[in-house]
């Protein structure tokens, strides 16, 4: 028997995000595990599904041992929806898309002027009721451009017009805002630590702001964008008048424009601290400890592209793993990065489902079996004869 045969098989950590539209992060880990073990049946594999604060963040926390809590809250159109958050001890993970996400809009229907984040505020309140003192607020996938006004209303802030009447839901109504009465803001927030976890660093207002950059994705016309940007500006001035200069500065802070400006509401009124979502989630999920047990890391997401390099989950995983001297390989639905870009991100090589099935519709519908094929090839290439 050769020395290579005597070497212990590497311990593999699968830390991949979802393949949007086809597989959850948990399913990705299961299919990669099956593919690896088809080649190396006794391989030691640990799964730690990850997320960057957007869709799937609660699922990733639950997979890491958090408990799932379900609450009935107000959806973005005002209808009741079932939303979940995750809780472990005094730490909660709240995903705004669970309450205020695009997933709740009928196909082809958008409500850029009227969609509300009220349900996200209700989720935060439920987490505080359950004893949370640290809340990770994941932002992404929102249907809203209300600056977090709905969220703050659910937490006790009164947003009033000149007649002292509470405003209607949505970002457009903020054009009539005369006063932000913050005296009723839930007092538990003062003692809580709120972490705003996102992957965009846009300010609240202007050409790089919430309305201009993300409003069109939520159905906003150019005229709607102008209305929303002006309304958000009025909102920021009202909060600054109520809360002081820190609230004014928060409008320019990185992350203020996240989730239709909900980042601003959290930064200005909840005292939130902004951190890149993948960094927050890796801390919360116990990624550092998992790395200590690993020799090889497999990461990935549906599309490895330029966006991946700007704060998405695989880049964060690779950065942390390579800092420990670990090899990183990736799986994905489609690959739009060069080998040099992958190497610069700390990824040794990537395996794309599109290489096995070029038709995008078939690739998505057959994502599970194709991912097992890709993982089997990964095992043959990377684990070598010792597998």
Automatic annotation (TrEMBL):
Kinase keyword on record: yes
Keyword check for Membrane, yes or no: no
The superkingdom listed in its UniProt entry is: Bacteria
Task: Tell me the protein family, please.
Answer: Belongs to the glycerate kinase type-1 family.
Record's keyword terms, sorted? Kinase, Transferase
Cross-referenced InterPro entries: Glyc_kinase_flavodox-like_fold, Glycerate_kinase, Glycerate_kinase_RE-like, Glycerate_kinase_sf
Question: Which species does this protein come from?
Answer: Actinacidiphila acididurans
Known Pfam families for this protein? Gly_kinase
Name of the molecule in the record: Glycerate kinase
Q: GO molecular function: any one?
A: kinase activity
């Amino acid at each position: 028997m050769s020395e290579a045969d005597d070497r212990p098989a590497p311990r593999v950590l699968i830390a991949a995000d979802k393949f949007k539209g086809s597989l959850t992060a948990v399913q990705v880990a299961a299919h990669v595990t099956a593919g690896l073990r088809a080649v190396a049946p006794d391989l030691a594999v640990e799964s730690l599904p990850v997320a960057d604060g957007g869709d799937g963040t609660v699922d990733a926390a639950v997979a890491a041992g958090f408990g799932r809590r379900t609450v009935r809250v107000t959806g973005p159109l005002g209808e009741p929806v079932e939303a979940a958050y995750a809780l472990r001890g005094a730490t909660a993970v709240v995903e705004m898309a669970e309450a205020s996400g695009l997933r709740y809009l009928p196909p082809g229907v958008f409500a850029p002027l009227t969609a509300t984040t009220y349900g996200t505020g209700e989720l935060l309140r439920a987490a505080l009721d359950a004893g949370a003192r640290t809340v990770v607020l994941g932002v992404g996938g929102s249907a809203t451009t209300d600056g977090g006004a709905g969220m703050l209303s659910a937490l006790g802030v009164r947003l009033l017009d000149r007649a002292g009447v509470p405003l209607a839901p949505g970002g457009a109504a903020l054009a009539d805002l005369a006063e932000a009465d913050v005296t009723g803001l839930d007092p538990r927030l003062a003692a809580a630590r709120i972490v705003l976890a996102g992957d965009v660093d846009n300010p609240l207002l202007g050409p790089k702001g919430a309305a201009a950059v993300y409003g069109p994705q939520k159905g906003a016309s150019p005229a709607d964008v102008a209305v929303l940007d002006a309304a958000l500006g009025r909102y920021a001035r009202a909060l600054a008048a109520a809360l002081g200069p820190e609230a004014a500065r928060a409008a320019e802070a990185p992350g203020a424009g996240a989730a239709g400006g909900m980042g601003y509401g959290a930064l200005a009124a909840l005292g939130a601290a902004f951190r890149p979502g993948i960094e927050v989630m890796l801390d919360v999920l116990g990624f550092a400890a998992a790395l200590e047990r690993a020799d090889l890391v497999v990461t990935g997401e549906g599309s490895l592209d330029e966006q991946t390099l700007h704060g998405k989950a695989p880049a964060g995983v690779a950065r942390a793993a390579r800092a420990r001297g670990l090899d990183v390989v990736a799986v994905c639905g489609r690959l739009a990065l060069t080998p040099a870009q992958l190497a610069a991100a700390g990824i040794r090589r990537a395996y794309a489902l599109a290489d096995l099935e070029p038709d995008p519709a078939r690739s998505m519908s057959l994502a599970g079996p194709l991912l097992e094929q890709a993982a089997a090839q990964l095992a043959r290439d990377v684990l070598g004869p010792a597998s």
